Every structure is written in structure tokens, then in C-alpha cells.
Amino acid sequence: MSKITAGKKRFVKRSLSKENPTVRIGKGGASQQVLTEVDNQLRKNKMVKVRILQTALINDEAKRVATQIAEQTGSCLVEVRGHTFMLYRARQK
Question: What is the model's pLDDT at position 30?
Fold first, then answer.
């Protein structure tokens, strides 16, 4: 997981604050399909907003799920608010 600057973090928060989450994690949890979709959106847009539905958090907490997804997709966890989190990954050169 790479580091993200404070300015880039502000930019991502500002960009995604008014947006609706584009990925939802249901009772299946962070399945391979979810990871693939997050990876595709990061490749296309560099940032993604994800919502964890209540049924996915029965045995886990949002911060742990968000950190796990960030590690598996090679992205930076920008912010966790409630059941929603934002990820950022710079484009590969």
C-alpha cells in the first residue's frame, strides 16, 4: 500500500463527497467479484467510494474491511465514515 499526501487526500475527499458509492459490499463480504470491480474502477478513475451494507458487518467492522480491501487492491485508504470508505490509487506509468 503506497502513501498518499495530505493534499491528494483532500482532493479525493472533495471529489467524492457529493458522489454516491459506486460499489456496495453485501452479505457475501469482500468477495473476489467485489475486489475485481474495485480494481477496475480504480484503474479507470483512480478513486472509488464503497458502501458496506449492514449485513456485511455482522462479524466485522468497517475499518477492518476497508483496510483489507485497500491492501488486496494495492490502493490507499483515504477515509472511513460510518459504513462508507474511499480508496485512491495512482495510475501505473
Answer: 82
Residue 13, Ramachandran bin (φ over 0: left; ψ between -120 and 50: alpha; else beta)? alpha
Q: Are 74 and 1 in contact (CB under 8 A)?
A: yes
DSSP label at residue 46:
S
Question: What's the average pLDDT block by block, 10 residues per block, for the chain (93 residues)?
Answer: 81 89 87 91 92 81 89 91 91 71
CA dist., res. 4 & res. 52, Å (int): 23
Q: Which of 12, 32, 15 is nearest to 87 (CA)?
A: 12
Judged by DSSP in three states, 85 sits in strand
Query: How many independent structural domains does the chain possess?
Result: 1
Taking the whole predicted model, whether its pTM rises above 0.90 is answered as: no
- CATH number for 37: 3.30.110.60
Q: Which residues are paired to 66 by β-bridges?
A: none
Q: Is residue 93 part of a domain?
A: no
